[in-house]
Amino acid sequence: MNSPATPAPQDTSPTADQTNQVQGQDVKVGGGLEARPGDTVSVLYVGKFTDGTEFDSSAAHGNQPLTFVLGSQGLIPGFQIGINGMKEGGQRTLAIPPSLAYGGEDVKDESGNVIIPANSTLIFEIQLVKVVPATSTPAAE
């Protein structure tokens, strides 16, 4: 019964399993450069818990893109794994298990309030705004 026109699951949002895998779903495939380790990428994002409660977003930081070198230290591994391979202009929803997020540690604000509880699966909606290749020789012309 191969019926490609029949939608299978009713819930199309990604879910993180209990292992070390990031689950991702492209909302829109971009047409620009592909993000690879070592590239400088800029993203807009919304971070949520599995119940839909938002804990962070680009909007909370003046709607400025988060810019970083893909594969560098300083961001949770699952966020970087999920962006790897995206194309500039693309949008992707990620489900990141605790093992690739903050694990068994609470994340607290400056006042000591817990903003991300330990062992939380995190959902990120990401838009890849820009990719600057690690070795961008053609742009020097």
From TrEMBL:
<dbReference type="Pfam" id="PF00254">
    <property type="entry name" value="FKBP_C"/>
</dbReference>
<keyword id="KW-0413">Isomerase</keyword>
<feature type="compositionally biased region" description="Polar residues">
    <location>
        <begin position="1"/>
        <end position="20"/>
    </location>
</feature>
<dbReference type="InterPro" id="IPR001179">
    <property type="entry name" value="PPIase_FKBP_dom"/>
</dbReference>
<dbReference type="InterPro" id="IPR046357">
    <property type="entry name" value="PPIase_dom_sf"/>
</dbReference>
<dbReference type="GO" id="GO:0003755">
    <property type="term" value="F:peptidyl-prolyl cis-trans isomerase activity"/>
</dbReference>
<feature type="domain" description="PPIase FKBP-type">
    <location>
        <begin position="38"/>
        <end position="132"/>
    </location>
</feature>
<protein>
    <recommendedName>
        <fullName>Peptidyl-prolyl cis-trans isomerase</fullName>
        <ecNumber>5.2.1.8</ecNumber>
    </recommendedName>
</protein>
<keyword id="KW-0697">Rotamase</keyword>
<feature type="region of interest" description="Disordered">
    <location>
        <begin position="1"/>
        <end position="35"/>
    </location>
</feature>
<comment type="similarity">
    <text>Belongs to the FKBP-type PPIase family.</text>
</comment>
